[in-house]
From TrEMBL:
Recorded GO CC terms: cytosol
Protein name in UniProt: Glucokinase
Family stated for the protein in its record: Belongs to the bacterial glucokinase family.
UniProt keywords, alphabetically: Kinase, Transferase
GO biological process, one term: glycolytic process
Any one Gene Ontology molecular-function term assigned to this protein's record: D-glucose binding
Top-level taxon of origin: Bacteria
Length: 325
C-alpha cells in the first residue's frame, strides 16, 4: 500500500511521443504496482498528467522526481521532438514539491537501466564476443521516433551521453536507397534516419513500396505491422527495407561508438520487429561494412523487451546521485 508520508517517494516519468508512463520509486527501486500509462493526445502539457497521477496514488509531497523525455534536453529543459510539449525541471518541482529533480533524454534513461533489468527482459539477437567488465554499451531506440545513446562506465559512475542521431542524414548506398530518400524528401524536405526507422517512418516505407508498385496507399503504423504479420507482398517488402536500413544504421553507430559491451535495441517498433530480424537480414546489413564486416561481429546485439525500462533507468539515475532517494 502506498503511503502519503511526505518526502518518501521519487516520481518517475517516461514521456514518449504517444504515451507517458508514470511510477513511484523508493530507495532507488521502481515500485511496479504504481506504474500507470497515459495517452498524450489531448493533453496540453506533462503537468496535468502528473497531477492526475499523484491524485490517483494519493501522494502530494515527493522527495525527488526524474523524467525522461523523447527530445533534446539542455539545462533542465526538454523540447519534445514529436509532441509540442516543453518539459522544465522547475515546473516539475512545483507540481511534485520534490527537492531533487532531474530531466533526461529518454535514451539516456534506457542506458541507465542497463544492469538493473530482469534477465528475461533482454532477448539476444547476435552473440558477439565476450566483453570485459566495464565495456562501453549502446542503446538504440526505435519507437515513435529514433535515437541512440552510448553508455560508458567511469571512475565516478555511469555516463550516458545524449544525442539526436535520429535526425542525421539517411544513409544511401543502392539505387533503391536513393529512390526512398527522394520519396521521403517530397514530404519532409530532408530525409533523416527517423523518417524511415520509426513508427511514422514505417508508414512512409510502406507508402514508398505501394507507390512503386503502382497502387499507392497511406496506412497507420499499426496497420502496416498487421500487413507484415499477414505476410502480404507489400508487408514483406516493407519489412525487408525497414530491417535492412536498421541493420545498416546500427552498424554505423557501432563503428562510431565501439560498444563492445553490447548494443541494446529498445522501443515498441524494435520489439515488434524482433521475430523478423533474422528473416529479413538484420545481421547481414549490420555487418555490411566491407573490410570491417568481421570486426562488427564482435558486438553483441539484444532487444530490451521491458516496456518500463526507462522508468527503471530514471530510478537508478537519481538514486546514484542522491542515495537517499
Amino acid at each position: 500500500m502506498i503511503s502519503s508520508t511526505p518526502d518518501r517517494y521519487t516520481l518517475l516519468a517516461d514521456i514518449g511521443g504517444t504515451n507517458t508512463r508514470v511510477a513511484l520509486a523508493e530507495a532507488g527501486r521502481l515500485l511496479p504496482e504504481t506504474i500507470r500509462r497515459y495517452a498524450n493526445a489531448g493533453r496540453p502539457a506533462l503537468e496535468p498528467i502528473l497531477v492526475d497521477y499523484m491524485q490517483t496514488e494519493g501522494v502530494s509531497d515527493l522527495a525527488g522526481a526524474c523524467v525522461a523525455a523523447a527530445g533534446p534536453v539542455r539545462d533542465g529543459v526538454a523540447h519534445m521532438t514529436n509532441l509540442s510539449w516543453v518539459i522544465e525541471d522547475h515546473a516539475i518541482a512545483n507540481v511534485t514539491k520534490a527537492e531533487t529533480v532531474a530531466v533526461l533524454n529518454d535514451l539516456q534513461a534506457q542506458g541507465h537501466a542497463l544492469g538493473y533489468l530482469a534477465p528475461d527482459a533482454v532477448r539476444g539477437l547476435l552473440p558477439g564476443a565476450e566483453a570485459r567488465p566495464g565495456s562501453s554499451q549502446l542503446v538504440i531506440g526505435v519507437g515513435t521516433g529514433f535515437n541512440a545513446a552510448p553508455v560508458h562506465e567511469g571512475p565516478g559512475g555511469r555516463i550516458v551521453a545524449a544525442s539526436e542521431c535520429g535526425h542525421i542524414t539517411l544513409p544511401t548506398v543502392s539505387d533503391e536507397d536513393i529512390a526512398l530518400m527522394r520519396f521521403v524528401e517530397e514530404v519532409h524536405g530532408f530525409a533523416a534516419v527517423e523518417d524511415v526507422l520509426s513508427g511514422r517512418g514505417l508508414e512512409r516505407v510502406h507508402a514508398f513500396v505501394t507507390t512503386r508498385a503502382g497502387a499507392p496507399e497511406r496506412r497507420a503504423a499499426a496497420d502496416v505491422m498487421a500487413e507484415i504479420t499477414a505476410r502480404t507482398a507489400a508487408g514483406r517488402e516493407t519489412a525487408r527495407i525497414f530491417v535492412r536500413h536498421l541493420g545498416a544504421v546500427a552498424g554505423d553507430l557501432a563503428l562510431t561508438h565501439l560498444p563492445f559491451g553490447g548494443i541494446h535495441l529498445c522501443g515498441g517498433v524494435a520489439r515488434a520487429f524482433t521475430p523478423l530480424f533474422a528473416e529479413f537480414g538484420f545481421a547481414e546489413a549490420f555487418c555490411a561494412k566491407g573490410r570491417f564486416g568481421d570486426f562488427l561481429r564482435a558486438f553483441p546485439v539484444s532487444v530490451i523487451e521491458d516496456d518500463y525500462a526507462a522508468l527503471v533507468g530514471c530510478a537508478a539515475y537519481i538514486h546514484a546521485r542522491a542515495p537517499q532517494l
